[in-house]
Amino acid sequence: MERKVKVAAVSYLNTKPLLYGFKNHPVMKMTELTMDYPSVIARQLIEGSVDVALVPVAVIPKMQESHIISDFCIGAEGPVASVCLFSQVPLQEIKRIYLDYQSRTSVALLKLLVRDFWKLDVELIETSDDYQHLIGGTDAGLVIGDRALAQRKVSAYIYDLAEAWMRFTSLPFVFAAWVSNKPLPVEFIQEFNNANSIGIHNIPAVVAENPYPVFDLTAYYTQHISYPLTPAKRQGMQKFLSYLQ
Ligand SMILES: C=C(O[C@@H]1C=C(C(=O)O)C=C[C@H]1O)C(=O)O
C-alpha cells in the first residue's frame, strides 16, 4: 500500500491496553490513527473514510466487505463492568430504558436480553446527547464505556449485560473487534497484531499511564475486559450475530 492505513480506535479506557504498544512501533510508519466513540467509528468504517476500526460487532452484518484482522478484541467472559443497565428500581419494575447513542453492539444486546432473557415490557428510547441525568424513578439507562464506570457510583441497581449474556447462552461475548473494509497487506496485519499484544502483556505499565480514581483499572483490564479473540469468543460472536439476522 502506497498510502498509510487509516485506523480508527475507540476513545475509551478499555482500548488503552490495545493502543499502548503503538507508540514508537514500526506499524506507525504505515498507520494514521484517530479515535472516537464506537457509533462514530462504525459509521466511518461503513462509509469508507477509514480502512480499519475497532468497531461494534453488531455492524459487521451491515458491511459489504469485512475482515476481522486481529487476534484481539474488546470482549468479556463474565461481568464486563462497563456495559450495564442502570436503574433506581429492580429490573421487573423498569418502565422505560434510555439507549446509549455511543453504542451499537450493546444496544442490540440490550434489545435481545429485554425480549428473550429478561422478558420485560418496556419502552426503549433513543438518545443523541447526554442522558444519564434522566435515569431515575422507573426510567433506566444503558450506559457503556468510561461513563458506565462512573455511573456505577450513582445507580442503585446495576445489571451487567455481559454477565446476562453468559447466563443466557453460556458463551463469552465480543463487543468490538478490529475489522477492515478491504484486504490489507500481510505485513501490516502482522505488525498491527504485534503492536496490539504489547500492552496486553504489560498491564501494570498501561495502568500507570492512566490514573483513574473512579474504578480499579487493573481489575478492569484483567478480570472484566478479556482481550484475546479466542474460538469460544468467536462462537459467542456468531451466536449474537445470528440473533440480529
Ligand atoms: C465493553 C465495552 O465495549 C464497547 C461497546 C461497544 C458497543 O456497545 O457498541 C463498542 C465498542 C466497545 O468499546 C465498553 O465500551 O464498555
TrEMBL record:
One of its GO terms (molecular function) is hydro-lyase activity. The keyword Lyase applies. Keywords: Lyase, Menaquinone biosynthesis. It catalyses: chorismate = 3-[(1-carboxyvinyl)-oxy]benzoate + H2O. It comes from the Bacteria. The keyword Methyltransferase does not apply. CDD domains: PBP2_Sco4506 (cd13634). Pathway: Quinol/quinone metabolism; menaquinone biosynthesis. It is an enzyme of class 4 (lyase). Its EC number is 4.2.1.151. Coiled coil: none annotated. One of its GO terms (biological process) is menaquinone biosynthetic process. Catalyzes the dehydration of chorismate into 3-[(1-carboxyvinyl)oxy]benzoate, a step in the biosynthesis of menaquinone (MK, vitamin K2). Belongs to the MqnA/MqnD family. MqnA subfamily. HAMAP family: MqnA (MF_00995). This is Chorismate dehydratase. It comes from Chitinophaga agrisoli.
